[in-house]
Amino acid sequence: MTNAQQVHWLTQQQATNRLPVRIQGVVTCALPGFDAAVVQDDTAGVYIAHWTSSLGFLPEVGALVQVEGVTDPDYQFSPRVRATRVFKLGTTNLPPPVRPYWDQLINGSLDTEFVEIEGIITSVREGSVTLLTHGVKSTSWYSIRLARQMTWH
Question: What is the residue extent of each domain of the chain?
Answer without folding.
Answer: 4-91, 102-147
